[in-house]
Specification:
By secondary structure, the chain is mainly β. The protein has two domains: about 5-90, no CATH class; about 100-175, no CATH class. The protein is about 5% helix and about 45% strand. It is built from two helices and 14 strands, in the order βββββββαββαβββββ. An eight-stranded mixed beta sheet has the order 5-4-8-1-2-3-7-6. Strands 9, 10, 11, 12, 13 and 14 form a six-stranded antiparallel beta sheet that branches. A hairpin with a 2-residue loop joins strand 1 and strand 2 (about 15-25). The longest helix has 5 residues, at about 75-80.
């Protein structure tokens, strides 16, 4: 994963809740984060590159907030994949990086200038599967769709009784997924 020194947004439940600082310290990369408490349960910080989501560690409670300080070696960073770090998310109670997670910034998944200027999309989900990132965007035939530039690349998907259009994203670009993908039907691909 390409980690550049700086501040990165941290999202929880689709809303920005804090910042994480990434800083090189010799042969290590230090990651520190402090966010408000967000309810009971174990909260983990996950890094998201657009290509892959990977856990960083457990946030520790203290002084009314959650925090983490972690140093990763080069081999520790390899587990995060080859993409560029885009943001961090908080996950609850051991949600694996492969589980559906809130997609706090849909535009952050894409490198294309047009797509990076999209308005925020509420309720979108993301997941890593079969070498690509999956993006599920809620939609209704009675409302305008927020991602019109890529609408034709989506396929219908239903999860927990809600309708979505499902997109595959690889290397920051939408791709056409194979028709026989396990998530191409209207069933829940959990």
């Amino acid at each position: 994963m390409i980690l550049e020194d700086g501040l990165y947004p941290v999202f929880s439940g689709g809303a920005e809740t804090g910042e994480a600082r990434v800083q090189r310290q010799g042969v290590y990369t230090a990651i520190s984060c402090r966010c408000p408490m967000d309810g009971p349960g174990v909260t983990r910080l996950c890094a998201f590159s657009g290509e892959r989501s990977a856990p960083i560690g457990v946030m520790l409670p203290g002084d009314g907030a959650l925090s983490i300080r972690k140093k990763l070696s080069r081999s520790g960073l390899e587990a995060l994949g080859p993409g560029k770090l885009r943001y961090f998310t908080l996950s609850k109670d051991g949600a694996a990086a492969e589980d559906w997670q809130d997609a706090p910034s849909v535009a952050a998944l894409f490198d294309d200038i047009l797509l990076s200027r999209l308005a925020p999309v509420r309720g979108a989900l993301t997941k890593r599967e079969e070498g690509v990132s999956l993006l599920a965007v809620p939609w209704s035939p009675d409302a305008p769709f927020p991602l019109m530039p890529i609408f034709c690349l989506g396929r219908p998907f239903e999860r927990d009784g809600r309708d979505y259009l499902l997109f595959s994203v690889s290397d920051g670009r939408p791709v056409i997924a194979p028709e026989r993908s396990p998530t191409s039907s209207r069933r829940d691909p959990r």
